[in-house]
Every structure is written in C-alpha cells, then in structure tokens.
Amino acid sequence: MHHDHHEHDLGLTHDLEAINALASRRRALRWFAGAGAGALLTGCDGGSATGTIVAPTPSPSPSTTPTPSATATAGCVADPSETNGPYPADGTNTSAGLTSNALTAANVVRSDLRSSFIGTSTTVAAGVQLTLTLTVVNVNASCAPLAGYAVYLWHCDRDGKYSLYDLPNESYLRGVGVTDANGQVTFTTIFPGCYAGRWPHIHFEIFSSLSNATSGRYAALVSQLAMPAAACSDVYNNGTGYSTSLRNLAGVSLNGDNVFGDNSNAQIAQQTPATSGSAAAGYAATAVIGLAR
C-alpha cells in the first residue's frame, strides 16, 4: 500500500499505535476479501469492473453427479489411437452379417459377451474363459477414474474369426459396458485366437457416455489391447480348439505387429493386460485405459 507521508523514529508509543492500526486494516481487508470475492471475480471474468465492492448474490449449486471417492490409478499414459480394423460393426463400414452397427442393437449393453444376441442365434463362443476388467482414467487429472463412460469391446473367436463378418449369422464376442464410480467395467468373454499376420489382440472403443455409443464416429478413443505372450502360449498349447492359433502365433511378434510395433514401451506396457490363471481354470485380466480429457 502506498502512502504520501512517511513516519520514522517517533517513539515507542507511536510505533505501538501504528502497529495496532495496521493490524485493524489487515482484519478489515480479510473481511472484505471473503465478503466481496464474488464481485471482484466477476469484474475479472469479463464483467464491468467499476471498482465498487458489491456483496455477492448467492446462487444455487449446479446439479452434478457426486464425485466418487475412488483412488486414482498410479502412473498412466494416454493410450494411442489404433485402427478399428475391418470388423468393427460400429457403423463405420458395411458388414455382410445381420447388422453393420451392433451398437444400436437391443441388449448390446451386457457383461457376458460369449453368446450371440442379434437375430435368432444364441450360440455361445467356445474357448478359454477370460474375465477382463478395464479401468478408464483421465491422464490430465492425475489418472482419476472416469465414471459413466461406455466401452465397446470386440474380438475374434478361438479360430480367428469375427462375428457379423466371417460369421454373418453370429454376434458373439461383442458388447458394451459402462464404467462405475471407480472407472471400471468388467466383461466375461473368451481368450481371443491368433490369426495370420496379427499379434493376438482385443479391440475397444471408448465413449464419453452410453448415449454417445450409437456410432463409432463419436468414440473418444479407438484402440486395442495386446494379449500377453505367456498367456497366449499357455492357452494355445493347452486350451481346446486353439491349434490354428498356436501355428499362427509362431509367425508373428509383438514388435513386428503393424499396430503395436511403433508404440513406446510405456504404451505397450499399458496396452498389455496383466493376467493370472491358466488354460484349465480360465484367466483374469486387468488393464488401464488412459484418456487425455
């Protein structure tokens, strides 16, 4: 604060009076800062700032979804955008099967992806069971969980074939789930097979809400998960019906894959689910999906 006069060396009594006066002014300033913060901020936010302090008018708090008391995931990176491939059934290409957009089909929101759900077929895809839990997080907010996001998941069967394309009358191994307060969604499916030219993988698309999950054109992220080599070896060697996948696996590598091969080590680590289990008992897997929101 600037003063037009100066006071120096006028005695102890004068100094004590000056200190008391200064303390009183500071208390007053603190009171005004609390009472007039709304008016001052309004002036700084593009309003008309006249220099007059006006008591703020109380306004109702916006109606928002309560913030979950979830723990942020430690250490995450933004997942790279990857191709949705030729078999997405998300409305971005034409399928020879029952629909070209499974996202608009009834009952697409489901946790168990093993059975067909479109048309009359209720065929259940055979293979080693895989329970996959994904945690969707915001990398721009200390890896905080993103609740209410929709995840569309799809992959090939144990023979390397895709429903609605290679198998036009089947719709299994596809479905949508919505993340909970912890940003998590869990699917029950089978361990995907390996077809010639690609490392074993799972496709997914992330939407900011279930209502937006009506076409692949509105996805916030399109990407893929790379299945761990050790789990692939176990399933293809010991799981029933994976003999073709075992032969195909011998001809591919993760580093040489045309999707994963150019990603950073950190991206590959996050795109590779952590797994536990066996071909006999089934596998459980977890992965973090990082979005830059």
Task: Describe, in plain words, how this protein is organized in 3D.
- It is globular and about 45 Å long.
- Helix 3 packs antiparallel against helix 4.
- The chain has 293 residues and is an alpha+beta fold.
- The longest helix has 24 residues.
- It is built from five helices and nine strands, in the order H-H-E-E-E-E-E-E-E-H-H-H-E-E.
- The strands form two sheets. Strands 1, 2, 5, 8 and 9 form a five-stranded mixed β-sheet that branches.
- It is 19% helix and 19% strand.
Brief account:
Helix content is 19%, strand content 19%. It is of the alpha+beta class and 293 residues long.
What's the N-to-C terminus distance? 42 Å
Low-confidence residue ranges:
1-69
Provide the helix percentage: 10-25%
Mean pLDDT: 83
What kind of sheet is the major sheet? 5 strands, mixed
Note the beta-strand portion: 15-25%
Rough shape? globular
Oligomer kind:
single chain
Q: How many strands?
A: 9
Structural class: alpha+beta
Sequence of secondary-structure elements? HHEEEEEEEHHHEE
Cα gyration radius (Å)? 29 Å
Number of helices: 5
Task: Identify the notable features of this structure and list them briefly.
alpha+beta; 5 helices; 19% strand; 4-stranded antiparallel β-sheet; globular; 5-stranded mixed β-sheet; disordered N terminus; 293 residues; single chain
Furnish the topology, listing elements before pairings:
Blueprint: H1 12-35, H2 37-44, E1 129-138, E2 144-145, E3 150-154, E4 174-178, E5 184-190, E6 201-207, E7 221-226, H3 229-238, H4 243-249, H5 265-271, E8 274-278, E9 282-291
Parallel strand pairs: 1-9
Antiparallel strand pairs: 1-2, 1-5, 3-4, 3-6, 6-7, 8-9
